[in-house]
Amino acid sequence: MSHINLDKPRYDQSTYLGRAKHFLLLTNPLNAFASNSDLEEAKRIVTEFRKSRKLPPGYDEDKLWATKYLYDSAYHPDTGEKMFVLGRMAAQAPMNTIITGCMITFYKTNAATAFWQWVNQTFNAVVNYTNRSGDAPLPTSQLIASYCAACGGALSTALYLNSKVKVRNQIRRKRRK
Questions:
Q1: What is the value of pTM for the model shown?
Q2: Cα separation of 9 and 75, whole Å?
Q3: I need a labelling partner for 122 at 20 to 30 A (CA). Which of 15, 30, 54, 155 fits?
Q4: Does the pLDDT of residue 170 top 90, yes or no?
């Protein structure tokens, strides 16, 4: 019988360092690249350990916890379903880096600004939907309304601010002449 409790975080959540370690392991971008067979194996190991409370052959405490964090990064905590890979928290850092880089690079036309704002809001919606509570399902109409409001707000704000920056830059150029 093992003393390990996989139903609680490994690190002390009352300290900053404990919370940081926990979430760094949970959101590790490398977890997004785990194969389906690795994820299924992690699920099997975690499920078997919870039933038997015995370390599987070839596993020590560190390897079991690494397997548990891989499992937690890919399976919804309420439903137990495997989550869409781009909606997992492990995909946040690489995806946001790509999207933000594109938003910073492609801003000169309204079409590019609108496109990358839409991509960003769509990605945010995918992450939020993937990580939603399994206890209280939302009506589809509310999800669509929220998505449209987020996209509309982001697009209008970005286009408005871009227009103000362009006007300001034109005024500056005229003053220099």
A1: 0.82
A2: 16
A3: 30
A4: no
